[in-house]
Amino acid sequence: MHRRRLACSASPAASGCSTSRKPLLDRRARTMHWACSTDPIPDPHGRAAKLLAFVDLLRHPKSEHADKRLDLAPFWRRILARIYGPSDDQGRRQVRTAFIMIGRGARKSTTAGVIALAHTVGPFRTPNSLVVSAGVDREQAGLAFGEAASMLALDELLSPRTKIRAWENRIVHVKSGAEYHAISADADAQLGKTPAVVIADELCAAWRGRTAVDLWGALKTGTAKVPNALTIIISTAGDGRDQALGLDLYRYAKRVESGEVVDPSFLPVIFEAPADLPWDDEATWRLANPGLDAGFPDLASLRDSVRMAKELPAFRRQFEQLHLNRWQDGTAAGWVDMAVWDEGSAPIDVKALAGRTAWLGVDLSKSFDLTAVVLVLRDDDGGYTVVPFCFLPTDTVRLRAANSDQPWREWESAGHLIVTPGSVQDEAAIEAKIVELCTTFDVREIAFDPRFGGRIMTRLAEDGHPVVEHAQSALHYTDGITEFQRVVLERKLRHGGHPVLRWCVSNVTPVVGDTGLVRFSKKRSADAIDAAQAAAMAIGRAMHSDGSTIYGAKDWRLDDVLFG
């Protein structure tokens, strides 16, 4: 029987992305993805080579080649090589979860079908193993199955050795008993399954509410029973509505991608267009659609969609979500790009700043929440230096260290978190820090969130300190928030890389009212934004110190608020 020639290597070199274009902005240059490079990918045990050899044997009914061979895009080959190639210290596949976010029309279902076949009839088949692809409904769940079944039907060697049960969305390898099953969100029916491979289709875009959580929990509980099981999430971005599961996974993937979390078992593969790039620029589209130059998605169709989206705001939101991977409520994309934020991380010599004019923002909290006192100084280039002081009681630190993935103990040891005895905030310690800062610096104003600050505000005012009340409303916050964002984007904010402030900023979601006024919100109840709030308060007071405000300028426009 004739078999096609193999043409693969352990570390594919070809790239599916154009490398000849000069990026329009440095921001684009930093966003070029490793999947579009030619750097070698480790494959010490030859697993990637086996998988790609199997890929080269597959045929696809829509292939334009005469022999119908599957021409998997080079960037997909590199992603597969990165999943299957690297090994851990015990020689097993290092990656156990892959999070792949890519624009619509990128042939996600075909790739999912390839992975399913590799573990059902291909080189990674094991006796009686189970591969599951999951979607929120039967139609979504059937997409990857349909791709797998159509490729299998064209294979004259494998097809007689399998049973394709289309009415059940099931493929069975007769001799080994290995099985591939596409399922939908009937979570209770999946509780007894122990899959070796789970492929979660459009988890971020379509899995919503309790049903999604139950399905995910059932499948992940099953994989925990199988050694070195593999979970692959392939999705576009969501719109944020009732999608906490997708948001949490996306945010974790971003933290792993940035190096904030070290997790070799989790592979983030994120193609997205940064929020500071124009949505209707074709160079921006390519950042979320690495197959665009190869014809998928169709460039002409995207151009047609953009023409319509320029006239219809709802269509623009849909375009940005599905083709640029921009979450549409701001909860995932964040307030500012954290890569830009990190450019202000040069060390700050606080002692050398003594005596300078300064402003304080104070966000006091309930007994178990973070309290922040942020010192702000105006710099000669129109920017600011911010120095945060964050407080938590020791009992709260103990609970948070046990129940969250933030390095609370490391922050405490490094002096980034001031931990006070007991289970409630130590007002005396907070007040003492404020007095110390007023002694060290020429503090013009101490802006307080008045909700929990009444007693401290009264004592400080009685002692002659310049206390001002900062009402908790968008009207009072907009100037400070807008100025805060401006100096971050202009690289004129110096924060010394303070990790607690960084965490708070990463948790911020801007909420814009009908009038264009802005306030801060947070993504989840477990998050904190207190240090970011306090910084915005102090920056707002500092920018008003000479009487200036964007609303007083003659040429002020609503577009000057950067959250339109």
From TrEMBL:
Domain of life per record: Bacteria
Region span, Disordered: 1-21
Domain Terminase large subunit-like endonuclease: 262-545
Residue ranges constituting the Terminase large subunit-like ATPase domain according to the UniProt record: 74-255
Biased composition (Low complexity): 7-20
A Pfam family that the UniProt record links to this protein: TerL_nuclease
Residue ranges the record marks as coiled coil: none
Signal sequence coordinates: none
Protein name: Terminase
The organism of origin for this protein: Rhodoplanes elegans
